[in-house]
Write a structure and sequence with these properties.
Helicase, Ruva Protein, domain 3; five-stranded parallel beta sheet; 20 helices; 14 strands; binds adenosine-5'-triphosphate; binds magnesium ion
Length: 449
């Protein structure tokens, strides 16, 4: 359900429009003038539909009051001139009065859909730029067929799901596929990578902020969970979710309710939660980094993505598909993969799985001079069977010793950011190594950030 504000001085048109929108399951608020609309909270609306000519200020003024809400302008004159001016000032679209009902409904649907998509910052915009082959998941191998079977059964339900699999195996692809095959497909799927957003911002990004909740919170902000209303919220790297946000997520799962940071009032929303991780979430629970009750709520169904090296002939098919895409992008027709390269690919360990394969193929396509891609262009080393063998185990061990000692000796005096900087690694990497080596953050240090 979307919240729409109608600003129109003509009561008959206002009433008719309200009825029309309510029949299409939107909730509607009304104002007679720009001045009246000023008393309303911009964060409450997904769309403003306004007459251009109103008593007092013109409808285009609303764009300043509702800067992040699309404003659809109605104009009784249908004069190209005023409509064009309105568009120049930032209206998303205009519609001529008297409007046709279907035309209005279509314009509203389209704008809302675009808004859902363009809402929320770079996280999602980057997401959109990617081309998701959701409908053509490659996977004839037995383990993939078993997985896709599960996906088909699960898609039509509202059950939460936990997707596990090594990095680059297609966890997000499966999440999107679940969404695309569900009743929720006309609503958005919103993807949040919990390790890509700073821990201290994640809670506010996900659940929203009430004006005045903290310094700098100048207006009400809707969270990504709310933006996914009616659709799916996909949390990638869910093991990075901070404790406070874990509590809010649990509430959402149990009561279908979210509370913006700094607000006492709950809001009901309807989202399906899908989470993913390449770590062992049960182990995180055992270490006390992840709430046990939340884990059980999320882990209703576990989908496990097999690593690429266990997918048999899928690998060749994935490579061919990647090559076709790469050639198209590069404007290079007629490339193919040599037998020798195919053999090398089949023997390689692929620690980065499908994503690594796609990157290797793309790089090879750039470097290839003529028809066939040879093994050496792939830049892979098939003799390195397992990641262990990539580095000298002796050296690896002493580095890990050094890491553990450094962290233990300094964590009480340094923040995580400082520790990471001194070690020359990212915070995410620090966190992951802590998990791997079993050195959780000490209670004292964790409040420091
Ligand atoms: N079975 C498949 N068929 C076609 N493309 C695939 C398949 N599996 C993965 N891909 C492609 O591989 C890339 C990586 O997939 P995705 O981002 O879903 O992996 P991930 O497991 O979420 O990775 P990460 O662990 O880094 O979050 C994407 O470009 C995706 O389209
Ligand atoms: Mg992912």
């Amino acid at each position: 359900m979307s919240h729409i504000l109608i600003v129109e001085d003509e009561p008959v048109i206002r009433g008719a429009l309200r009825k029309l929108l309510e029949r299409h399951d939107h909730s509607v608020a009304e104002a007679e003038s720009v001045e009246q609309a000023h008393d309303l909270d911009p964060a409450d609306f997904d769309l403003v539909i306004s007459d251009l000519r109103l008593p007092g200020a013109p409808g285009t003024e609303l764009m300043t009051r509702f800067p992040s809400t699309p404003v659809l302008i109605m104009t009784s004159y249908a004069s190209l001139r005023s409509a064009v001016d309105a568009m120049k000032m930032g209206a998303v679209d205009y519609i001529a009065k008297p409007f046709d009902h279907d035309e209005m409904v279509m314009a509203v649907d389209r704008i809302l859909k675009e808004k859902h998509i363009s809402r929320h910052n770079d996280v999602m915009r980057a997401d959109l730029a990617r081309n998701w082959p959701v409908t053509n998941i490659i996977g004839d191998s037995d383990p993939m067929q078993a997985l896709l079977d599960q996906v088909r059964k699960l898609a039509s339900t509202d059950t939460s799901a936990l997707i596990r699999g090594e990095s680059g195996t297609g966890k997000e692809l499966i999440a999107r596929s679940l969404h695309e095959h569900s009743e929720r497909r006309s609503a958005p799927i919103i993807t949040v990578n919990c390790s890509a957003i700073a821990a201290e911002q994640l809670e506010a990004e996900l659940f929203g902020v009430e004006k005045g909740a903290f310094e700098g919170a100048h207006s009400n902000q809707r969270g990504l969970a709310e933006s996914a209303d009616g659709g799916t919220l996909f949390l990638d790297d869910v093991d990075h979710l901070p404790v406070d946000a874990q509590a809010r997520l649990l509430r959402l799962l149990e009561e279908g309710e979210i509370r913006r940071v700094g607000s006492l009032a709950g809001r009901k929303i309807n989202v399906r939660i899908i989470v993913a991780t390449h770590n062992d979430l049960a182990a995180c629970v055992q270490r006390g980094d992840f709430r046990e009750d939340l884990f059980y709520r999320l882990n209703v169904v576990e989908l496990r993505l097999p690593p690429l090296r266990e997918r048999g002939h899928d690998l060749q098919q994935l490579a061919d598909a990647a090559l076709e895409r790469a050639c198209e992008r590069l404007g290079r027709p007629n490339l193919s993969i040599s037998e020798e390269a195919r053999d090398a690919m089949q023997r390689y360990y692929w620690p980065g799985n499908v994503r690594e394969l796609e990157n290797a193929i793309e790089r090879a396509a750039i470097l290839a001079e003529d028809g066939a891609i040879s093994a050496d262009l792939l830049g892979i080393d098939p003799s390195a069977k397992a990641p262990r063998q990539l580095a000298d185990p002796q050296e690896e061990l002493s580095l890990e010793d050094y890491f553990a000692r450094f962290v233990l000796e300094n964590q009480d005096q340094m923040t995580e950011t400082e520790l990471a900087r001194k070690l020359g690694i990212s915070r995410k990497c620090l966190w992951e190594r802590r998990q791997r080596l079993g050195i959780p953050r000490s209670k004292q240090a964790s409040s420091g950030g």
